[in-house]
Amino acid sequence: MAKKEYIVQVTAREELGKGYNRRLRAGGKVPGVFYNGKGENFAFTIDEAVLSKTLRDMGRTQVFSLKVESDGETKSMPAIIWQVEHHPYKKKVNHVDIYGIDPHKKLRVDVPIELQGTPPGRKEGGILEIFHDSVTVECLPMDIPHTIPIDVSGLEVGMHVHMEDLVFPENVEPFYEENFTILNMTAKRGLAATGETGGEEGEEAEAAEGEAAEAEAE
């Protein structure tokens, strides 16, 4: 199934500075910067509503056609959203970086994880701890996945998921140096401290308590 084609339109700008950027934001615009591997870069503005809708519809890993208006002319180039800076407490975007890509050259990008299923460990009183909400992959721009799914339907208390446990789409290679932990299902501290011990360990504990009681009685 072919990916949907997206078009994002921006307007090149020459004026820079914090004061100018504040005025842009007050007027419903978001300042941004475009750059690529060839050393080309320019500043631009994009309508805040358009950017918000774009991020909702295609996420941050989708290749799109960037249309740039400058001096009455419009040029187009393939690109991806590279970095988004959000306001510290308002639901607004302060700044956006867009990266111009070569469709035939591999990229190294961060892709968000997507949890699938309900972990049975939650019914046991466990807590799902997520240490990384994205992972780094290397692939051609058109092969960048929207998300990396992680099936947690078999995750019980004490179990964890490492980088090497993930399944990646065809033509997408994970990039990592250490097999770090993505997430785990841990027991609540209260349950871990007061929980009953079962099996052979429980029997041994009960026997030890019985022997101690007999010794005190003697």
From TrEMBL:
Protein name: Large ribosomal subunit protein bL25
InterPro entries found in the cross-reference section: Rbsml_bL25/Gln-tRNA_synth_N (IPR020056), Ribosomal_bL25/Gln-tRNA_synth (IPR011035), Ribosomal_bL25_b-dom (IPR020057), Ribosomal_bL25_C (IPR037121), Ribosomal_bL25_long (IPR001021), Ribosomal_L25_dom (IPR029751), Ribosomal_uL5_bac-type (IPR020930)
Family classification: Belongs to the bacterial ribosomal protein bL25 family. CTC subfamily.
Region named Disordered: 192-218
Top-level taxon: Bacteria
Signal peptide segment: none
A GO CC term assigned to this protein in UniProt: cytosolic large ribosomal subunit
UniProt-listed SUPFAM superfamilies: Ribosomal protein L25-like
Acidic residues compositional bias, start-end: 198-218
UniProt keyword list: Ribonucleoprotein, Ribosomal protein, RNA-binding, rRNA-binding
HAMAP family: Ribosomal_bL25_CTC
GO BP terms: translation
TM ranges: none
Purpose: This is one of the proteins that binds to the 5S RNA in the ribosome where it forms part of the central protuberance.
GO molecular function annotations of the record: 5S rRNA binding; structural constituent of ribosome
This protein's record includes keyword Metal-binding: no
Occurrences of domain Large ribosomal subunit protein bL25 beta (ranges): 106-188
Keyword Transport attributed: no
Domain Large ribosomal subunit protein bL25 L25: 9-97
